Amino acid sequence: GLASSEPKEGEENLRSPICCIMGHVDTGKTKLLDCIRGTNVQEGEAGGITQQIGATYFPAENIRERTRELKADAKLKVPGLLVIDTPGHESFTNLRSRGSSLCDLAILVVDIMHGLEPQTIESLNLLRMRDTEFIVALNKVDRLYGWKTCKNAPIVKAMKQQTKDVVNEFNMRLTGIITQFKEQGLNTELYYKNKEMGETFSIVPTSAITGEGIPDLLLLLVNWAQKTMVEKLTYVDDVQCTVLEVKVIEGHGTTIDVVLVNGVLHEGDQIVVCGLQASINLGPIVTTIRALLTPHPMKELRVKGTYVHHKEIKAAQGIKITAQGLEHAIAGTALHVIGPDDDIEAIKEQAMEDMESIGTPICVP
Ligand code: GDP
After folding, report:
1. What's the pTM value of the predicted model, to 2 decimals?
2. Residue 259 phi, psi (nearest 5)
3. What pLDDT does residue 46 have?
4. Distance CA 28, CA 119 (A)
5. CB-based pocket (< 6 A), ligand 1
6. pLDDT at 365
7. Which residues, listed in sequence order, are joined to residue 306 by a DSSP beta bridge?
8. What confidence category does residue 286 fall into, taking pLDDT thresholds of 50, 70 and 90?
9. Could you give the CA distance from residue 252 to residue 235 in angstroms, rounded to a whole number?
10. ipTM of the modeled complex
11. Quick check: 69 and 154 in contact, CB under 8 A?
């Protein structure tokens, strides 16, 4: 169950890194998520992956299994990887500008046939503004003329199977895209040639249809996160939590879908979220968590509208929260927990400061 995120003896007390997928429309963000989720993989092989609220969780064992061909003996120190299911999500427009900081790292998807496009640059600017590290997935390599499919293969292995013409076209397009990134003030390089990660952003060629490069992408994400973000990923007691969506659910009233980035949430916790009354007045909502819900782990058993209840949930997870008074909660803002020794007024103020720092205008339909 969810308690398996507890570190085993000798392991470091790290939470799962949180990753989001960004990029121009039609570059393959949705398909890439499907592909790493293994939706297209035969049943059984996708072992351990769980669908969460607004996110998909990949346990470390699953990542290890799928990256075996890369012969990376690197020990996975994080319990897994949480990927936010935002592509195509309506609330993402809201979150894009406000909450991209909820992600520790991002996959920026670029179509190898199209190069950088307007929303690629928009995403780039958001990532830079938020200081979020990212990896470029240079997607649709299978569309290179004459590409020979090597299903789910590491990219170097797949490239070795290609004709000289395919390799030439690949190199030409790659060079062009590296130049386009340079015009945006960014150094990028193929990940296995990148000697200075951090200074130079890594490019992983992928196909979201045939799966080439997906093992590389997964391994790179996890390795990089645990190598460079230990402090950020170290488990803390203070709750760090972002509201993704506000939704009315039959039988539960208005609920909020959140990503618990760090810390623990309990049933009965007193919380503060930002609210908007009568479309104009910003004000903190103070309420109590009635239920912490997650979908049933097994898709087959999932009955529409039913959830698993939890007494407590430890980060990082996607969770649905039910509580009174959430009708006017605002997506993209932080959720605060009032501890036994905390001053409610101070926390209310803090919640509203977050809100102000995000800045208005806010459009309410
Ligand atoms: P999004 O708008 O970025 O989420 O893009 P989608 O995932 O919806 O993909 C847009 C289109 O490109 C769809 O028709 C996909 O089937 C196709 N597509 C996505 N990834 C690939 C890929 O790696 N190779 C090929 N050939 N087509 C792809």
Report:
1. 0.86
2. -110, 115
3. 53
4. 13
5. 25-31, 87-88, 139-140, 142-143, 207-209
6. 34
7. none
8. very high
9. 31
10. 0.99
11. yes
Contact 251, 261 (CB under 8 A): no
- Residue at 310: amino acid letter: H
What does the alpha-carbon distance between residue 207 and residue 190 come to, in Å, rounded to a whole number? 15
Instruction: Tell me if residue 313 falls in helix, strand or coil.
Output: strand
The string of pLDDT tens digits covering residues 95-153 is 544 444 678 899 999 999 999 999 999 889 888 887 888 999 999 999 999 999 999 99
H-helix or E-strand spanning residue 356: helix 344-358
What is the 185 CA–ligand 1 centroid distance (Å)?
A: 27
The pLDDT, as a whole number, for residue 34 is 87
Dihedral of alpha carbons 11, 12, 13, 14, sign: negative
Nearest CA among 325, 320, 319, 348 for reference residue 336:
348
Give me 288's structure tokens: 């109590």
Task: List the structure tokens of 337.
Answer: 């927990």
Q: Would the pLDDT of 47 be above 70?
A: no
Give the residue from 133, 117, 186 showing the smallest Cα distance to 19: 133
Index of the ligand 1 atom closest to the CA of residue 31: 7
CA 158–ligand 1 middle distance (angstroms): 20
CA-based torsion, 108, 227, 244, 349: positive or negative:
negative
* Both tokens assigned to 315: 């980060």
pLDDT at 327: 92
Tokens standing for residue 151: 């299903």
Ligand 1 atom 6 nearest Cα: 28
User: Residues 330, 355: contact at Cβ < 8 Å?
Assistant: yes
